[in-house]
Amino acid sequence: MTAHRQTKQLEAIRTAFQTAERPLSIEELHELATRDVGTLGLRTVYRAVRRLEEEGEIARVLVPGDSDRYELASVASKHHHHFHCTACDRYFDVHGCPGGLNKIIPNGFKLEHHDLTLSGLCSSCA
Amino acid sequence: MTAHRQTKQLEAIRTAFQTAERPLSIEELHELATRDVGTLGLRTVYRAVRRLEEEGEIARVLVPGDSDRYELASVASKHHHHFHCTACDRYFDVHGCPGGLNKIIPNGFKLEHHDLTLSGLCSSCA
DNA sequence: TAGTTATTGACAATTTATTGTCAATAACCG
DNA sequence: CGGTTATTGACAATAAATTGTCAATAACTA
User: Nearest CA of chain A to the CA of B70: how many Å?
Assistant: First the structure.
């Protein structure tokens, strides 16, 4: 059968998500997982991300003016937002959400979702 | 001297911003301004946008997972947010802003800016 | 109005991100 | 262990957005 093999490459990528605890770009994933594998090719990261996304293990995070990030689906499923550090260029999870958004939309509009991206300096860079 | 010539192409692009009253993509600009000029080339739109941006007449709007938009600097300078209609794919201005964002950021982080993108259906599509 | 030159637009070229290909490798199964 | 085949990674190829080029045009100036 077409089973899934347990490779050290995919393991390293999964580990990167687990330990980083923040949304990761393809490049970040490559860099982080390379610490475990060393020979990890960028092509493999692209394949793994696509697969993990299709299987619902990770979810794509869209951020303004920056390449897509990915985070664990278990994290993504809980409503939250993101903080972008303009110094180290990393994204962090922000749990908490300003409410009352229905009050600010124009008349006749139907609000369904919202994305909030905070930015500034993370604790390491501040 | 290197003055600026008043061309109908640039005029059409300026008019598009004035009448649309919402952030426009390069493609949208091309489409809207083409109604005035007809022969307007995409190359000209790229050039005009770059120049208007450099001269501070328009400002780039970064939106999550979508190509950049541009809006009049006079609009951009007033703090506001955007609404994305998932049906017609247009962006609209939202005046108003949820406050209290400092309360939700992690400890030690320094909040400087924030971007809020609401999404759903605009009044035309709802 | 005639001359100068900024602007335009067709087309080619570039850039960057992502995917296709395929031989070598390594994970899994009996 | 040995065979099967999913996976990997080097490399080429593609796709899409943006920019370079340059002859033709159109705005401006004297």
Answer: 13
